[in-house]
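# nightly structure sweep
# worker-07 picked up a monomer target from the shared queue
# config: single-sequence mode, recycle default, output format = structure tokens
# input follows
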Amino acid sequence: MANVSVYNKEGVQTGSMELDDAVFGVKINTHLMHMAVVTQLANKRQGTQSAKTRSEVSGGGRKPWRQKGTGHARQGSTRSPQWTGGGVVFAPKPRDYSMKMNKKEKAAAIKSALTSRVEESKIFVMEDLDFDSIKTKQVKNLLDGLKVSKALVVTADADDKVVLSARNLQGVRTVPSNSICVYDILKYDNLVITKDAVAKIQEVYA
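# output follows
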């Protein structure tokens, strides 16, 4: 089992903790992690873009001038793509970009991402993040003590004090343990996670 250091809210090491290899020590599958990231980004797309083709633009029913004898190139409609106000060639239309992954593939991708953070020594386990008040300085001092700037902060449950204290810090994102995803784990350089959150994640994915 991987053994990682445990820190307090001041960023001072207070002990150590063993992580379950079934979650934090698996063989890293880069293909599944890539699939998970592509799937998440695709599912964020609205797909509402739309433009009109020449058949949908109003006007242009009459031939603008006769076929021959004018000195101009022949034209059949003023709504052709080469005309100002004409239709768009291969115009984009609303479409569904959503993709799906199997549950086991999602779980394997998350475990691979968590393992990558352990192997790179970019995981910091906290005793707790029970802040007395909402203050950005508390989270800033914590990250400074850990010597990290860009981090994903994971709590066991949704914690408004942690969320509101961290939301003004650039490069910092807070999520509860049941909302972690491969994209966030890989996007933010470091994983700052509470002991309770580790226990919940191991309970779900082990």
